[in-house]
Design a protein that fits this description.
This protein is about 30% helix and about 25% strand. The protein is of the alpha+beta class. It has two domains: about 90 residues, wza like fold (2-Layer Sandwich); about 100 residues, Outer membrane lipoprotein wza fold like, CATH 3.10.560.10. The strands form three sheets. A five-stranded mixed sheet has the order 8-7-11-9-10. The longest helix has 22 residues. It is elongated. The N and C termini lie close together (about 10 Å). The relative contact order is 0.14.
Amino acid sequence: MKKISILFAAALFLGSCNSSKKIVYLQDIETNKVENIATKNQIKVEPGDQLQIVVSCKDPELAAILNMPLVGFQAATDRVNTSNSIITYTVDQQGNIDFPIIGSVNVAGQTKEEVRQTITEMIKKAELIQDFVVTVDFANLKIYLMGEVGSPGTYTITDHNINIFQALAMGRDLTINGLRDQVYVIREENGQRISYRMDLRSKEIFNSPAYYLKQNDVVYVKPSRMRANQSTVSGNSFQNTSFWISLASIFTTIYLAFIK
């Protein structure tokens, strides 16, 4: 009986250690050590993005020529949308927006700061107004969380430098059945699709091109085998072959402990 107790305690200890290695994030990170942060990826404008662009100056009437009334925009083009009285410009498939007075402006591949500079220079060149300020922001940045996360779904992001951990926190973290070493980021850009596999248990994740997310990224967390087995008919784990193998192994271990 004593042998069985020791064996059972050892099995629990080993099982606990093994589970910890599967669950804990950033296991190899060094504490109290300063590390340089790589340059954060700036989200760049892509076709289909919506931009909020506002031109302002001391004289609202002068700025009005570059901030046309909402009705005027709706009548002028279907590539300009309105929501809560904020004008948004939708980037077409050629990477252009139609801006009042100035006309077509190519913004694809630019950061929001670069778009601001582009429009500012074009207004100055046209000598339309003086002492003005241009503000630019994204209006529709979204990411998608799928698989073994607490709350899968579509999430609007306001932080242009959101990382994978922050994104998963928005979805209430991984469930206990999510594989920490099999988190995938699926990204489409420049007419191509690429998938990144990420291991949340290792600090090497900081070096991944997908550590900082981009608009329209899909984050998928693969389920554990136990979770996947629950999708069998009626969700009965007793139908799974591995269950019976594991059970036979346990009984064999106990039997050998008795006969020694």
